[in-house]
Design a protein that fits this description.
With about 220 residues, the protein is α/β, with parallel strands linked by helices. It is built from six helices and eight strands; from the N terminus they run H-E-H-E-H-E-H-E-E-E-E-H-E-H. The protein has helices spanning about 5-20, 35-45, 65-75, 95-105, 160-165, 205-215; strands at about 25-30, 50-55, 80-85, 110-115, 120-130, 130-140, 140-145, 170-175. Strand 1, helix 2 (about 35-45) and strand 2 (about 50-55) form a beta-alpha-beta unit.
């Protein structure tokens, strides 16, 4: 199992923050089946100091369940910054970071392309919005989700990979954290859209108008 690419970017940013002396420890967290332990060891090879695996062998957990799990971890670990990928490429929900911030009551910035922690107790974040680039200044602790523009993740050196395999991974259950992972949303049905007729190439404006009026019923003959 590989790390979600957006979460890998978040991990890279956390590792760089530690290298610059802006944080003391980087803790990687994953919720999922036993094979997630491999991803967490990769995370430690890429710069995480510790790893926490919330073991869950059941069906996929919806974003609210993930957010509640991370909330419990954050209340236990008390980080100054929770860094996540802006979206998981399997579900493509883009909801977990926002829900986590709401549960914790922390400020948030999504789709971050730059994070500045040089001001003690504050984070200045650039994020890409539909209207352009926004700059947000937030009091820590805060939740930030990473966009692709934030950085280019490093490759783990062989020595770090070998060392990470010897490090323990703390394993918990949702019950240990007091979290209920029961799904709140049920997919009632899913279906493909009805097939559409193939397009028709016309040779003149007159033919186009005729088809629009007499076949498609889009234009009314005056």
């Amino acid at each position: 199992m590989s790390i979600n690419p957006f979460c890998e970017i978040a991990l890279e940013e956390a590792a760089r923050m530690k290298e610059r002396g802006l944080t003391e420890e980087v803790v990687a967290v994953s919720l999922g089946p036993s094979k997630c332990a491999d991803s967490l060891r990769t995370a430690m090879a890429l710069g995480a100091d510790r790893a926490i695996h919330v073991l869950h062998e059941g069906p996929d957990v919806e974003p609210l369940g993930v957010a509640r799990t991370l909330e419990a971890i954050c209340r236990r670990e008390k980080p100054s910054l929770a860094l996540l990928g802006k979206v998981a490429v399997d579900g493509d929900h883009s909801q977990t970071g926002q829900m986590l911030a709401g549960l914790l009551g922390w400020p948030q910035a999504t789709a971050a392309s730059q994070i500045d922690l040089s001001e003690p107790g504050w984070a200045t974040v650039q994020r890409e919005a539909e209207s352009g680039m926004e700059t947000l200044r937030m009091k820590l602790p805060a939740v930030v989700t990473a966009d692709l523009r934030l950085n280019q993740p490093r490759y783990a050196p062989l020595a770090a990979i070998v060392k990470a395999r010897r490090k323990p991974v703390e394993t918990l259950s949702a019950g240990d954290l007091g979290v209920d992972l029961t799904r709140q949303v049920e997919v009632v049905s899913a279906s493909t859209p009805p097939p559409r007729p193939p397009g028709v190439r016309v040779r003149s404006v007159e033919e186009l108008v005729d088809k629009l009026v007499n076949e498609a019923g889009v234009l009314k003959d005056q």
